[in-house]
């Protein structure tokens, strides 16, 4: 698995793309989208997450994975559900189309956290748990994939809960340069 793979609205994964060696992630929550959902993740990304989770806990923050691998078909179902309920324009704006979600790589995670024994489902950028992740995730190989102010570059709205494993080296480069994965690829191909 290439940890630096770029997936977005212009670089789609095929219906047949299923990552190798996904491991089941045992977390105290399932996805917000579907309660029967089972979290699965790339093993290296999961190991990195466990390290990050342990260090977050030392800092006083209880973070968990809410959503990880999603198949093409799963994303298709979510997209179609939203399009049916709220219209196609809304779905195109707020839900990745099938093939455009990097959750299909098994390298992306949506974070949820627990505070005062309660799971907090509406993660915001000023939550201390999220702030801790913004500052530290790169040390474990994760980047904030859809940052604020980069919506036109990534093609996605700001998602303070969505992190992507790219490996420590690239994560650190992206963090210190304050760029996105798209900009990293433009820079290196120009
Ligand atoms: Zn996500």
Descriptive overview:
The protein is α+β, with helices and mostly antiparallel strands and 190 residues long. The protein has one domain (23-189): Muramoyl-pentapeptide Carboxypeptidase, domain 2 (2-Layer Sandwich), CATH 3.30.1380. Helix content is 37%, strand content 15%. It contains seven helices and seven strands, in the order ββαβααββαβαβαα. Strands 3, 4, 5, 6 and 7 form a five-stranded antiparallel beta sheet that branches. The chain has a two-stranded antiparallel sheet with strand order 1-2. Strand 4 (108-115) and strand 5 form a beta hairpin. Helix 2 (72-86) crosses helix 3. The longest helix has 16 residues, at 43-58. The radius of gyration is 16 Å and the shape is globular. The two termini are 25 Å apart. Residues 103, 108, 110, 162 line the site of zinc ion (ZN).
Q: Which architecture does the CATH hierarchy give at level 2?
A: 2-Layer Sandwich
CATH topology: Muramoyl-pentapeptide Carboxypeptidase, domain 2
Shape: globular
Structural class: alpha+beta
Helical proportion, percent range: 25-40%
Cα end-to-end separation? 25 Å
Oligomeric form: single chain
Radius of gyration: 16 Å
Average the pLDDT over all residues and give the rounded result.
91
Distinct ligands, ions and cofactors found in the model: zinc ion
CATH class: Alpha Beta
Amount of beta strand = 5-15%
DSSP summary: helix tally:
7
The tally of strands reads: 7
